Protein: P-loop containing nucleoside triphosphate hydrolase protein
Amino acid sequence: MMSDSDSYNSEPSEPHSHGVGLSNSDLSSNRRNLLDIINRLHTTGVQVDMDLPQIAVVGQQSAGKSSLIESISGITLPRASGTCTRCPTECKLTRSPKPWQCTVSLRFITDPNGQPLGQPRIDRFGDTITEPSLVEERVRRAQRAILNPTVIYKTFLTGDDEDFHDELTLTFSTNTVILDISGPDVEDLAFCDLPGIIATASGTSKTSDIELIRSLVTSYIKKPSCLILLTVACETDFENQGAHELAKQHDPQGTRTVGVLTKPDRISTGDEENWISFIRNIREPLTNNWFCVKQPNSSSLKQGISWREARAQEDEFFSMTAPWCELDPSYQKYLRTRNLVARLSIILSDLIAKRLPEIQEELQNMLDATEKQLQGLPKPPSGEPFGEINGMMHKFATDLQSRMFGVANKDGREGLLQQIHPVHEEFRKAIRNTAPDFRPYEHRERRGKTFEKPDFLAHEEDDGDGDVLSGSESTDSGDSESRIIYIDQVLQYATRSRTRELPGNFPFVVKQAMISECTQAWERPARQLCSQVYSLVHAEVKAAVIEHFESYGQGILAQTLKVILNDHVKQCYESAQRMISWQINLEKLAFTLNTHYLADYKDKFLSFYKGYRDKERGAALMKAIQTLASIGGVTDDFSKVTGLNKVMEGLSEVGVHGIKPADLPKILPADEFSPALDIMADVRAYFQVAYKRFVDNIPLAIDAELVLAVAGDTLLATIFSGTGLTGPNNMKICKELAQEHPGIAGRREELHKKLDRLSNASQELLRVRA
Structure:
């Protein structure tokens, strides 16, 4: 490592000559403009978000990076403390007709704890420097400010330079020192000098610094638009220099790596050809070749060699020293600093020209994506949380009322009532299936019997899917046997229930008992319906809370409302259950004022039951009558129906006239089960009337006491009271509820900073085009 005195002799009389001099006429203004565009983009900090073309100088410690940078920039960097290799140093070199000047800035991308800032902070470090001899001390102070992030950076601008010699909070940092150098003869180039890679920790370095430096270097060179300026010292075996391995890892084809051999004067005797093979691009070939430069040694620096003298010595070395001077002219262009810088300028400007259209498109895409991400975040807290929360509560109540009242399907999602309708239908079927299954024949006659459903019921209550009332009968067998009530069983029960009634009369309790046996089965389906609707309402309320409040604040308001509304919905559910109990009690005793429908159903069922029995009892007679009907009544063929003919003739002989064949079933003996038929018809008719009102009343009660009541007049009062917003501490409560989740707040801040960077970069591009 060189001492403090090991630096170029500054020449104040000719500050403009401290550069390679690429700003000559053969370097087009277009290249300068391209470099200026990228420099402007770098000042916005947008390189954090996207891949901008740049040159990164990498190499092992003591590989000659600092000397190379000095030869390119014409300035002297601090050396003795080693701080020059402990943080990135960006050099932006720009040709300008104005006198030579240099400004030093600090770019912080992490806070004192090493956490990302999101938006880079750039602080100007001191006044503009107009004398190159003052740069070294300013840079040294700037690097110490970077390595002591807990100390105000301005502290390092004043005081004795030696006072800060050993005061370092960090050994390395990812924050950057920025040098903006301009002047008449300054080359148009920009590059970043990265800390030298170390193999082992020693001195003030820590073991963790090894990985920190590799990670820092990797963060630069992994980007496809980063040109890797790889410095390799000829005094050390190539295989022992890990910088090349790292560069090759991220640029395996060598398309964006420019190799630079340093310290060629220290090559061991007999080993020259190994290094010459790099210049010939035979060993570790690169697309842009290897270069070799010669910088002043320690002795020359101590003697105060000037920059011009250093370049003259470099020319002399490569012109007079074998085997360099013996290289073909085609390889001579890869020797000397000026050739290296000229090539770097061309490569960088070409890369910028190629990337610029892509950068414009990427910027716009990233702007759109960032704005979309911001829009996807919850709204930021309001300055008036009480008014904001009050408005949200009212909006929520209005939405919940709409949901409970019923809304059409939206976005393919069924509304609450659409989900309740199938449950209602299941309830209707369950109640209907409790209908008494009367059979107009005796239990002993059941084998082989078939009992068709009444046509009027099939037409009236068909489900549309082929499934009809549970009262529809088929062959007696299996599970249906336990539900069937035979006519003899009805008569036996009625007879056993008689008390003081006159013969042929039966007490009302018989019909009431049969009716009660049906209505008692209604409670379970009714309560099950209420529970199912409760589950659907509970889920709908929860979904509404999530939609309106889940992303608000830290989620405390949403969680509080879930608890409050869970209790509110449960109370409505319990009220609905009490109403069901009331409805069940109403059905314990048979009653209806709907006498018209009751009478109509009784007539239909009685005719149906009697018709079945008459058909069974007078089967031959009924068959004859049906045959007569099939031939069109009394005709010439009437004599063919011999039995029926004899009956009709016999009635005429005894003076009974006006009797039609269809009237003959009336002369059959009275049916001993007629009272049972009447009971069966009455009970079955009443069931039809009662069940139809019940399957309406229960859903109506649940709708009124549960569904609509949830979003009723007490809703707002319930949630305002439950959250404490009506109390004396309502403002404090609202402020606490509105506090945003730190993660969301941090994400919003990060996106806003990113949006600012992208917007500033976009404006820079627009300004350039204008």
Remarks:
- Residues 1-7, 10-27, 464-479 have pLDDT under 50 and may be disordered.
- DSSP finds 24 helices and eleven strands in the chain.
- The longest strand covers residues 101-110.
